[in-house]
Amino acid sequence: MENKIMISIVIPCFNSEKTITRTLLSVASQSYKNYEVVIIDDGSTDRTKKLIEDFFEIYDLNYKYIYQENRGPSKARNLGVSNAVGDYIAFLDSDDTWHKDKLSIQMKLIKENNLNFLGSTYQYSEFNYNENSNIVLKRFTFQELLIKTQFSTPGVVIKKELFLNLGGFDTHMKYSEDNDLWLRASLITDLYLIVEPKLVRLHKRAYGDSGLSGNMFGMYKGELFSLKKFWKQGNLKSLNYVFLIIFITMKLIRRVVKNFLGKN
Protein backbone atom coordinates (compact mmCIF):
# COMPACT_ATOMS: atom_id res chain seq x y z
CA MET A 1 0.00 0.00 0.00
CA GLU A 2 1.18 3.48 -0.79
CA ASN A 3 1.97 5.67 2.20
CA LYS A 4 0.23 8.72 0.76
CA ILE A 5 -3.56 8.52 0.84
CA MET A 6 -4.71 8.89 -2.75
CA ILE A 7 -8.49 9.11 -2.41
CA SER A 8 -10.71 10.80 0.13
CA ILE A 9 -14.26 9.41 -0.02
CA VAL A 10 -16.62 12.20 1.03
CA ILE A 11 -20.02 11.06 2.31
CA PRO A 12 -22.60 13.62 3.48
CA CYS A 13 -25.44 12.17 5.51
CA PHE A 14 -28.63 13.35 7.15
CA ASN A 15 -30.90 11.02 9.14
CA SER A 16 -29.48 8.07 7.21
CA GLU A 17 -29.97 5.31 9.77
CA LYS A 18 -31.77 3.09 7.22
CA THR A 19 -29.01 3.21 4.59
CA ILE A 20 -25.64 4.34 5.98
CA THR A 21 -24.42 0.86 6.97
CA ARG A 22 -25.14 -0.51 3.48
CA THR A 23 -23.26 2.40 1.93
CA LEU A 24 -20.25 1.99 4.22
CA LEU A 25 -20.15 -1.75 3.50
CA SER A 26 -19.73 -0.97 -0.20
CA VAL A 27 -16.77 1.26 0.72
CA ALA A 28 -15.18 -1.36 2.97
CA SER A 29 -15.55 -3.91 0.14
CA GLN A 30 -13.49 -1.87 -2.35
CA SER A 31 -10.59 -3.78 -3.90
CA TYR A 32 -8.70 -0.47 -3.97
CA LYS A 33 -7.57 0.20 -0.40
CA ASN A 34 -5.60 3.46 -0.43
CA TYR A 35 -8.33 5.76 0.78
CA GLU A 36 -9.81 7.56 3.74
CA VAL A 37 -13.48 8.06 4.52
CA VAL A 38 -14.70 11.55 5.42
CA ILE A 39 -18.27 11.54 6.74
CA ILE A 40 -20.09 14.83 7.21
CA ASP A 41 -23.16 14.45 9.39
CA ASP A 42 -25.43 17.28 8.31
CA GLY A 43 -27.39 17.58 11.55
CA SER A 44 -28.85 14.07 11.91
CA THR A 45 -31.28 13.54 14.76
CA ASP A 46 -31.71 9.76 14.39
CA ARG A 47 -29.26 6.88 15.03
CA THR A 48 -26.93 7.74 12.14
CA LYS A 49 -23.95 8.65 14.35
CA LYS A 50 -24.32 5.51 16.49
CA LEU A 51 -24.45 3.26 13.44
CA ILE A 52 -21.34 4.93 12.00
CA GLU A 53 -19.47 4.44 15.27
CA ASP A 54 -20.58 0.80 15.45
CA PHE A 55 -19.47 0.20 11.87
CA PHE A 56 -15.94 1.50 12.39
CA GLU A 57 -15.55 -0.54 15.55
CA ILE A 58 -15.87 -3.59 13.31
CA TYR A 59 -14.08 -2.30 10.20
CA ASP A 60 -10.63 -0.87 10.77
CA LEU A 61 -10.66 1.90 8.18
CA ASN A 62 -9.11 5.36 8.11
CA TYR A 63 -12.06 7.68 8.70
CA LYS A 64 -13.17 11.05 9.99
CA TYR A 65 -16.60 11.88 11.36
CA ILE A 66 -17.55 15.56 11.35
CA TYR A 67 -20.87 16.92 12.62
CA GLN A 68 -22.39 20.20 11.48
CA GLU A 69 -25.77 21.82 11.99
CA ASN A 70 -28.03 21.15 9.03
CA ARG A 71 -26.71 23.28 6.15
CA GLY A 72 -27.42 21.10 3.10
CA PRO A 73 -25.36 18.66 1.00
CA SER A 74 -23.32 21.29 -0.87
CA LYS A 75 -21.88 22.78 2.31
CA ALA A 76 -21.43 19.28 3.73
CA ARG A 77 -19.45 18.12 0.68
CA ASN A 78 -17.36 21.28 0.63
CA LEU A 79 -16.57 20.80 4.32
CA GLY A 80 -15.64 17.20 3.64
CA VAL A 81 -13.21 18.19 0.90
CA SER A 82 -11.64 20.86 3.11
CA ASN A 83 -10.90 18.13 5.67
CA ALA A 84 -9.67 15.61 3.10
CA VAL A 85 -6.00 14.66 2.67
CA GLY A 86 -6.26 12.63 -0.55
CA ASP A 87 -5.09 13.86 -3.93
CA TYR A 88 -8.46 12.83 -5.38
CA ILE A 89 -11.99 13.15 -4.06
CA ALA A 90 -14.65 10.48 -4.58
CA PHE A 91 -18.19 11.46 -3.68
CA LEU A 92 -20.73 8.98 -2.37
CA ASP A 93 -24.23 9.61 -1.06
CA SER A 94 -25.40 7.90 2.12
CA ASP A 95 -28.07 5.86 0.33
CA ASP A 96 -26.04 4.65 -2.68
CA THR A 97 -23.50 1.86 -3.17
CA TRP A 98 -20.46 1.09 -5.33
CA HIS A 99 -19.28 -1.96 -7.21
CA LYS A 100 -16.33 -3.47 -5.35
CA ASP A 101 -13.92 -2.57 -8.18
CA LYS A 102 -15.16 0.98 -8.79
CA LEU A 103 -12.19 2.83 -7.33
CA SER A 104 -9.67 0.34 -8.76
CA ILE A 105 -11.00 0.81 -12.27
CA GLN A 106 -11.22 4.59 -11.98
CA MET A 107 -7.77 5.07 -10.47
CA LYS A 108 -6.20 2.84 -13.12
CA LEU A 109 -7.80 4.92 -15.90
CA ILE A 110 -6.93 8.19 -14.17
CA LYS A 111 -3.25 7.25 -13.94
CA GLU A 112 -3.06 5.80 -17.46
CA ASN A 113 -4.71 8.84 -19.06
CA ASN A 114 -3.57 11.57 -16.64
CA LEU A 115 -7.17 12.59 -15.91
CA ASN A 116 -8.39 15.24 -13.49
CA PHE A 117 -12.00 14.09 -13.61
CA LEU A 118 -13.62 10.71 -14.19
CA GLY A 119 -17.24 9.72 -13.68
CA SER A 120 -19.06 6.41 -13.72
CA THR A 121 -22.60 5.62 -14.83
CA TYR A 122 -25.20 4.15 -12.51
CA GLN A 123 -27.92 1.54 -12.47
CA TYR A 124 -30.80 0.61 -10.18
CA SER A 125 -30.30 -3.16 -10.21
CA GLU A 126 -27.65 -5.53 -8.87
CA PHE A 127 -24.18 -5.24 -10.45
CA ASN A 128 -23.35 -7.58 -13.32
CA TYR A 129 -19.79 -6.38 -14.05
CA ASN A 130 -16.98 -8.92 -14.24
CA GLU A 131 -13.27 -8.70 -15.05
CA ASN A 132 -13.89 -9.59 -18.69
CA SER A 133 -16.29 -6.69 -19.26
CA ASN A 134 -15.15 -4.11 -21.80
CA ILE A 135 -14.59 -0.59 -20.49
CA VAL A 136 -16.18 2.15 -22.60
CA LEU A 137 -14.80 5.63 -21.93
CA LYS A 138 -16.30 8.81 -23.37
CA ARG A 139 -15.36 12.49 -23.15
CA PHE A 140 -18.04 15.16 -22.72
CA THR A 141 -17.73 18.84 -23.55
CA PHE A 142 -19.30 21.92 -21.98
CA GLN A 143 -21.79 22.22 -24.86
CA GLU A 144 -22.86 18.58 -24.54
CA LEU A 145 -23.36 18.89 -20.78
CA LEU A 146 -25.56 21.93 -21.27
CA ILE A 147 -27.97 19.73 -23.22
CA LYS A 148 -27.94 16.70 -20.93
CA THR A 149 -26.48 15.90 -17.52
CA GLN A 150 -24.11 12.94 -17.83
CA PHE A 151 -22.44 12.70 -14.43
CA SER A 152 -23.99 11.55 -11.16
CA THR A 153 -22.28 12.70 -7.98
CA PRO A 154 -21.70 9.19 -6.50
CA GLY A 155 -19.82 8.23 -9.67
CA VAL A 156 -17.37 11.14 -9.76
CA VAL A 157 -13.69 11.10 -8.85
CA ILE A 158 -12.16 14.57 -9.15
CA LYS A 159 -8.68 15.84 -8.42
CA LYS A 160 -8.80 17.78 -5.16
CA GLU A 161 -6.73 20.64 -6.59
CA LEU A 162 -9.25 21.08 -9.41
CA PHE A 163 -12.20 21.02 -7.00
CA LEU A 164 -10.62 23.71 -4.83
CA ASN A 165 -9.68 25.85 -7.84
CA LEU A 166 -13.32 25.75 -8.92
CA GLY A 167 -14.46 26.89 -5.48
CA GLY A 168 -16.37 23.69 -4.79
CA PHE A 169 -20.15 23.33 -4.98
CA ASP A 170 -22.13 26.55 -5.21
CA THR A 171 -23.78 26.71 -1.78
CA HIS A 172 -26.39 29.17 -3.07
CA MET A 173 -27.92 26.31 -5.05
CA LYS A 174 -30.22 23.68 -3.55
CA TYR A 175 -30.73 21.77 -6.80
CA SER A 176 -28.45 21.08 -9.80
CA GLU A 177 -25.41 22.24 -7.83
CA ASP A 178 -23.57 19.10 -8.91
CA ASN A 179 -24.12 19.63 -12.64
CA ASP A 180 -23.19 23.29 -12.17
CA LEU A 181 -19.81 22.17 -10.83
CA TRP A 182 -19.27 19.67 -13.64
CA LEU A 183 -20.05 22.39 -16.19
CA ARG A 184 -17.52 24.73 -14.60
CA ALA A 185 -14.96 21.94 -14.59
CA SER A 186 -15.57 21.20 -18.28
CA LEU A 187 -14.49 24.74 -19.16
CA ILE A 188 -10.95 24.09 -17.93
CA THR A 189 -10.30 20.35 -18.20
CA ASP A 190 -11.46 17.21 -20.01
CA LEU A 191 -14.33 15.36 -18.36
CA TYR A 192 -14.51 11.62 -18.97
CA LEU A 193 -17.22 9.11 -18.14
CA ILE A 194 -17.07 5.32 -17.85
CA VAL A 195 -20.17 4.53 -19.89
CA GLU A 196 -19.72 0.80 -19.39
CA PRO A 197 -19.59 -0.98 -17.03
CA LYS A 198 -21.94 0.76 -14.61
CA LEU A 199 -20.16 0.94 -11.26
CA VAL A 200 -22.68 2.83 -9.10
CA ARG A 201 -26.00 1.59 -7.82
CA LEU A 202 -28.69 4.10 -6.88
CA HIS A 203 -31.24 2.71 -4.46
CA LYS A 204 -33.85 5.33 -5.29
CA ARG A 205 -34.78 7.06 -8.52
CA ALA A 206 -32.66 10.02 -9.58
CA TYR A 207 -35.52 12.45 -8.92
CA GLY A 208 -36.44 10.77 -5.64
CA ASP A 209 -39.11 8.29 -4.65
CA SER A 210 -41.14 10.97 -2.90
CA GLY A 211 -41.81 14.59 -3.79
CA LEU A 212 -40.99 13.85 -7.40
CA SER A 213 -42.73 16.86 -8.91
CA GLY A 214 -41.25 19.23 -6.33
CA ASN A 215 -37.79 17.93 -7.14
CA MET A 216 -38.34 18.44 -10.85
CA PHE A 217 -39.31 22.08 -10.35
CA GLY A 218 -36.35 22.52 -8.02
CA MET A 219 -34.01 21.06 -10.62
CA TYR A 220 -35.53 23.33 -13.24
CA LYS A 221 -34.91 26.44 -11.13
CA GLY A 222 -31.38 25.25 -10.40
CA GLU A 223 -30.65 24.79 -14.09
CA LEU A 224 -31.98 28.28 -14.85
CA PHE A 225 -29.78 29.75 -12.11
CA SER A 226 -26.73 27.95 -13.48
CA LEU A 227 -27.40 28.99 -17.08
CA LYS A 228 -27.77 32.61 -16.03
CA LYS A 229 -24.36 32.48 -14.32
CA PHE A 230 -22.66 31.10 -17.44
CA TRP A 231 -24.39 33.71 -19.62
CA LYS A 232 -23.33 36.58 -17.35
CA GLN A 233 -19.76 35.27 -17.29
CA GLY A 234 -19.62 35.19 -21.08
CA ASN A 235 -19.52 31.40 -21.42
CA LEU A 236 -22.89 31.40 -23.20
CA LYS A 237 -23.95 33.54 -26.12
CA SER A 238 -27.34 35.23 -25.74
CA LEU A 239 -28.92 33.17 -28.52
CA ASN A 240 -27.71 29.92 -26.99
CA TYR A 241 -28.88 31.09 -23.57
CA VAL A 242 -32.43 31.72 -24.84
CA PHE A 243 -32.46 28.39 -26.70
CA LEU A 244 -31.39 26.50 -23.57
CA ILE A 245 -34.07 28.19 -21.45
CA ILE A 246 -36.70 27.05 -23.96
CA PHE A 247 -35.11 23.59 -24.17
CA ILE A 248 -35.07 22.88 -20.43
CA THR A 249 -38.57 24.31 -20.08
CA MET A 250 -39.80 21.82 -22.68
CA LYS A 251 -37.96 19.04 -20.84
CA LEU A 252 -39.73 20.02 -17.62
CA ILE A 253 -43.12 19.96 -19.30
CA ARG A 254 -42.40 16.53 -20.77
CA ARG A 255 -41.35 15.19 -17.36
CA VAL A 256 -44.39 16.62 -15.61
CA VAL A 257 -46.72 15.10 -18.22
CA LYS A 258 -44.92 11.76 -18.04
CA ASN A 259 -45.08 11.79 -14.24
CA PHE A 260 -48.79 12.69 -14.32
CA LEU A 261 -49.64 9.93 -16.80
CA GLY A 262 -47.61 7.45 -14.76
CA LYS A 263 -49.78 8.11 -11.73
CA ASN A 264 -53.03 7.65 -13.62
From TrEMBL:
The keyword Transferase applies. Pfam families: Glycos_transf_2 (PF00535). The keyword Nucleotide-binding does not apply. One of its GO terms (molecular function) is transferase activity. Keywords: Transferase. InterPro entries: Glyco_trans_2-like, Glycosyltransf_2, Nucleotide-diphossugar_trans. Residues 8-140 form the Glycosyltransferase 2-like domain. CDD domains: Glyco_tranf_GTA_type (cd00761). PANTHER family: GLYCOSYLTRANSFERASE (PTHR43685), GLYCOSYLTRANSFERASE 2-LIKE DOMAIN-CONTAINING PROTEIN (PTHR43685:SF2). This is Glycosyltransferase family 2 protein. It comes from Sulfurimonas marina. The lineage of its organism: Bacteria, Pseudomonadati, Campylobacterota, Epsilonproteobacteria, Campylobacterales.
